[in-house]
Design brief:
single chain; Arc Repressor Mutant, subunit A; mainly alpha; 3 domains
Length: 152
C-alpha cells in the first residue's frame, strides 16, 4: 500500500506545472492562494525554476501565438502577457515574433462593422480594433480595405 506524503509547496508547484505552463508570478500567487506561506511559496518557485520546470521565454512565445491567433495586436498582447506576471524583458523578445496580419485585421474590421458603413459604425469598429491593441494607422488601413471611407 502506498502512503501519501504530506503536500508541500514544492510538490504542489510541480503538480500545477504538470497541468499547464505558467510564469513564476502566477505560480507564486497560486501557491499563496492555496495557503502556503509567502517564504515557502518563494522557495518552491525558486526550486522549480532552478530545475528548469518554468521556462518563461517559451511560455511568453506560446502566449504571443495564442493571442495573435485570436486577433490581438501588439499593445493588447503586451498587456495580456504582463497580466500573466511576465516581465517586459521576457515579453519584448517574444513580441518580435508577432507578425502583423493585415488580412485578419480586415476580417475583424468587417466583423465589427456588421455590414454598416456609416460614420458611427466606422467609429465603433475603430474603437473595438483599438481595444484589441492595433495602432490608429493599422486601423485606418483595415477600415479602408474593408470598404469604408475613414477621415479619422
Amino acid at each position: 500500500m502506498k502512503t501519501s506524503e504530506p503536500r508541500t509547496a514544492y510538490t504542489t508547484a510541480v503538480r500545477q506545472l504538470a497541468m499547464r505552463a505558467m510564469s513564476k508570478a502566477e505560480l507564486y500567487e497560486k501557491l499563496v492562494r492555496q495557503g502556503y506561506p509567502a517564504e515557502e511559496a518563494d522557495d518552491a518557485v525558486a526550486a522549480v525554476t532552478e530545475r528548469g520546470y518554468i521556462d518563461e521565454d517559451a511560455y511568453a512565445r506560446s502566449l504571443v501565438k495564442r493571442y495573435a491567433k485570436r486577433g490581438y495586436g501588439h499593445r493588447a498582447v503586451f498587456a495580456r502577457l504582463r497580466a500573466h506576471g511576465l516581465d517586459a524583458k521576457v515579453i519584448e523578445p517574444a513580441l518580435e515574433e508577432l507578425e502583423y496580419d493585415e488580412d485578419m485585421l480586415v476580417k475583424l474590421a468587417l466583423k465589427h462593422l456588421k455590414g454598416e458603413t456609416g460614420a458611427e459604425a466606422v467609429r465603433r469598429a475603430g474603437a473595438a480594433l483599438y481595444r484589441r491593441g492595433y495602432t490608429p494607422e493599422q486601423i485606418k488601413t483595415a477600415l479602408r480595405n474593408a470598404g469604408t471611407e475613414t477621415d479619422e
